[in-house]
């Protein structure tokens, strides 16, 4: 899975996703565009965030609606 797939599965904008991960929106854009690779800590976090139960809990805690495809 890619960062874009994870972000879209959560129904978040790049700015919302960046805030959730405590990184800048431009960093998210650079990773999604292939200009940069995620640092190892972010890559590990993304592997956890992509799990639906974790992602849903994070989105709800942040006050964002989740839109998981069923």
How would you explain this protein's 3D organization?
The chain has five helices and no strands. The protein has helices spanning 3-10, 14-21, 25-33, 40-49, 52-61.
Outline:
The chain has helices at residues 3-10, 14-21, 25-33, 40-49, 52-61. The protein is an all-alpha fold and 70 residues long. The two termini are 17 Å apart.
Report Rg: 11 Å
Shape, principal axes of CA atoms: globular
The DSSP helix count reads: 5
Oligomer: single chain
Quantity of strands, as a count:
0
User: Structural class of the helix and strand makeup?
Assistant: mainly alpha
Largest sheet: none
* Strand residue content: under 5%
The percent of residues in helical segments reads: 55-70%
Write down the secondary-structure element order: HHHHH
Distance between the ends? 17 Å
Q: What's the pLDDT, averaged over the residues? A: 76
User: Which regions have little confidence, pLDDT < 50, spanning 5+ residues?
Assistant: 66-70
Show the helix and strand layout.
Layout: H1 3-10, H2 14-21, H3 25-33, H4 40-49, H5 52-61
Descriptive key words:
70 residues, mainly alpha, 64% helix, 0% strand, globular
């Amino acid at each position: 899975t890619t960062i874009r797939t994870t972000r879209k599965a959560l129904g978040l904008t790049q700015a919302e996703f960046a805030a959730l991960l405590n990184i800048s929106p431009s960093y998210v854009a650079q990773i999604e565009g292939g200009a940069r690779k995620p640092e190892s800590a972010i890559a590990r976090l993304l592997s956890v965030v992509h799990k639906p139960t974790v992602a849903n809990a994070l989105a709800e805690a942040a006050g964002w609606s989740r839109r998981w495809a069923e």
